[in-house]
Protein 1
Amino acid sequence: MSSKFQTALLIGIAIVVGMLYMRRPEKQIPIVQDIEVIQPENRSITVIGQGEIKTNLDKAEFIIAFDTDGEELADARMKGEKIYKEATNILTTHGVEENDIVDGYTRVQVRTASSTTADKKIYGYIVYRTIKVTLNYLDELNALFMDLQAAGVYEINEITISVSNIDGFRERALQLAVE
């Protein structure tokens, strides 16, 4: 395309755009329509209520952890089994049900000399063991901890104290809020 033709085309487009821009819009005639508003049949009412329930904490969950050591792995395991049985006996005498006593993990660690040679001598074994316990009443908690300590269990972790039947209390609070 020649530059004269491009210039003429550009001027023509500019004139058309200017005419469209300057053109006044015509007055629009309103269209009369019958509009019918239909209310929905289902109506709703929003009500806000509050229900409050107070209760005492009555459930404790915790993890008992202990370790035993020995020159032989069998000795370390037997010592660990002895502490485990003693701990479970203490738990059952304090009213903890068998299904509320759950075995955790057992881990064995080898004790070796800290040498840089590839031939490391084994000096013994350490057996770590945990038990997860759920106590459904808190009256015995202090006495239970004291008896476990006397049995050689010195580590109690992740103690959580809560309400055992929280769903029932939530339902009752909801009923009070509705009333």
Protein 2
Amino acid sequence: FVAWWQPTEVFRLDEGMPGFEREALRLAPHLVERFQGGSPGVAIPGGYLFLVNETAAFEDEGEVTLSRFVRIDEGFQVTAISPQFFLFERGREQATGLARQANRLIAGFRVASAGAYLATIDLDEVLATLLDVNVQETKNG
């Protein structure tokens, strides 16, 4: 469970445990400071993939929310981020979930004016959009 993105704080809950236990606390690129909510992670080779919301405020548009995919490695370090995207209404939808079925991703979205939608996306196509972040820069702040 990712509780926060900057720093990236991950908790574990195992069957029989009385509560959550911190699994990792990692520095991350400053870009992830605006990430919130989104999805549980799905396992991919070498780590996990998440679908997150990124919200920013603009004078002329007000608050705008876009989505991104985020890859973290098995040590829970943010390693890559997709460009921002939206499905129907720029800035007015939120990612709500992510699941994996073989080589397909199923992503949930809530669209302000149109309700809820599910989108299916090829996993390899999503992985091809990811831009590596400089892990060395991340570790040194």
